[in-house]
Design brief:
alpha/beta; DUF247_pln; three-stranded mixed beta sheet; globular
């Protein structure tokens, strides 16, 4: 699905991905990217989407919120790695079922009780991510 958004003074085209259950139904294989040193080492080759493991603990929300806030409110920070990653994961996870699938693949490893909590966490983090100076919901 392609979505066109007016961001600031220019149009940007965003190509959104489907959630993990839809990707799996379409024949896309989800795998943990072993040996990755960065959460951004995401690869899609020959129908296989490889994503590094994300370890989620009780302090993960605080760290990501602080990194997002720093990026958004510090004018000298121009890279969008953290916000792009959060939006990518948010797009992959439409429900706790998607979290369960990513957990079974070794892509999400968490200690927060249940998959519903992880879905809520990523939804909350993605809720107010700014792009191009404007704050908008990516939902």
């Amino acid at each position: 699905m392609v979505s066109h958004r007016n961001v600031g003074d220019h149009d940007e085209e965003w190509e959104f991905i489907n959630c993990t259950t839809e990707l799996q139904e379409a024949g896309i294989e989800l795998k943990e990217a072993k040996g990755s040193i960065s959460l951004l080492d995401i690869k899609f080759t020959n129908g296989v989407l490889e994503i590094p493991s994300l370890f989620i603990k009780d302090w993960t929300k605080t760290i990501f919120k602080n990194l997002i806030a720093y990026k958004q409110y510090c004018p000298i920070v121009t890279c969008t790695y953290v916000t792009d990653y959060i939006i990518f994961m948010y797009r992959l996870i439409n429900s706790s079922k998607d979290v369960e699938l990513l957990r079974r693949c070794g892509i999400i490893i968490h200690w927060l009780g249940n998959d519903v909590a992880i879905h809520a966490l990523l939804t909350n983090l993605a809720k107010n991510v700014a792009r191009g100076g404007d704050i908008e919901m990516y939902g």
